[in-house]
Amino acid sequence: MTVGGALGKDLLGLESLSADQIRLILDTAEPFKEISERAIKKVPALRGSTIVNLFFENSTRTRISFEFAQKRLSADTVNVSTAGSSVSKGETLVDTARNLEAMRIDMVVIRHSASGAAQFLAERIESNVINAGDGTHEHPTQGLLDILTLRDRFGDLKGRRICICGDILHSRVARSNIWGLTKLGAEVAVCGPRSLLPNAIDEMGVRIFDRVEEAIQWAEALNVLRLQFERMTAGYIPSAREYNRVFGITRERLERAPRDVLILHPGPMNRGVEIDSDVADGPHSVILHQVTNGVAVRMAVLYLLAGGKPELAEAAKGGSGRGREERE
Amino acid sequence: MTTTNTTVLDARAVERTLKRMAVEIVELNRGTDDLIVVGIQRRGVQLADRIVKMIEGGEGVTVPQGSLDITLYRDDLQTIGPRPVVGPTHLPWDLDGKHVVIVDDVLYTGRTVRAALDELADFGRPAAISLAVLIDRGGRELPIHADIVGKKVTVGDAERVDVMVAELDERTEVVIVSKSSA
Hints:
heterodimer; A: alpha/beta; Rossmann fold; 5-stranded parallel beta sheet; 9 strands; B: alpha/beta
């Protein structure tokens, strides 16, 4: 059985994927976890593929995670960041990508501060495009790794109660999580100051908690988001201290929960603001497990998007005239 | 288009064949020391499992057993596209200096075995690697041969050899599936 084309050419967001496509990525990520535990952490699946990591916005974790995933699949990678590239000389996004494509690349991983940048690029170049975060739109691989981490703990996510806490307005992570989790049948809620919730958030099929205590009473897992001060152009909250007092995830608040609540955070953390250190480092935190899963999920996405060029398959069929080994 | 199924080995014949292969593996290795049996996903794993139990029954020794999914070592990703990775690779043993016997259900083009050899090399440097297959159907595209063969069959390119094992297929049987446009 071939799965090529099961995801299409690009991964731009979880909104456009079906539940089956999301499950395919998560199931494919499972065996990839083991590769990172080997002494030689490398398989030749993407040997000969050239991938460009095009980062127009700062990133440490996501870029390194993608790079590890690419290297562990034996792809050749080039990192392009805004500083020190033609981008800072005013070259447009499409010109940059077309120039890269002229050097015969196979895939672009893009992060950009403009929502829709990944799709804009995907429509204009032949290479596969993976969205590594576009503005406040989506960050699909982060959503997928959060979901994989939840699935590791809960198994089937149908009916599981997950609350996303904090700065939902500026969060592409929140959007990808909400799309992915609701498609898999989980119950999703958001909790944060009204000034940091998007207007039409209820249209995404989520419940809203105004008080973090209520969210903790309800949820089996909390995905705690970072306050994105760099995106806040106006006074959304009085102060970080005030935020911590009203919405911070603290041990005292969690101790009043009727059950153990799993704690996720996509990083980087503002310790003492949205999350307290003893929660982040506590027994129910899976924050570092998320990071480990990130590499496996990205390997799965790269693998599923790679190869499968129909014209090559046709040529191969005509060439040998013989199938491959029986029973895959 | 009609398909006809011809049974090559029934459940009891498979059992008998595997028993002989288990004996041959121990003979080839001159005992059970330093022996590791590795099944290729999928059905090679179940066959390896049975062979290890048979060796245990005959020799009273449980030899280490592993499994290998070679999907990521295939040479046709760029042409055919990705296939689902069907099962885990599980090789928690140090392979250096050991005798690894690869077990697979059907040997055909030899490309799966080539991929398995590449993957094993990433896990260590065995003293020797041998190949044991339940069915050798000919049609090699690479210079690869099996050291231990359960049964040789001659089939055309249009025919398929299906190995079924009770663990996955509800029954154990080897059939040749031929399509004729009658």
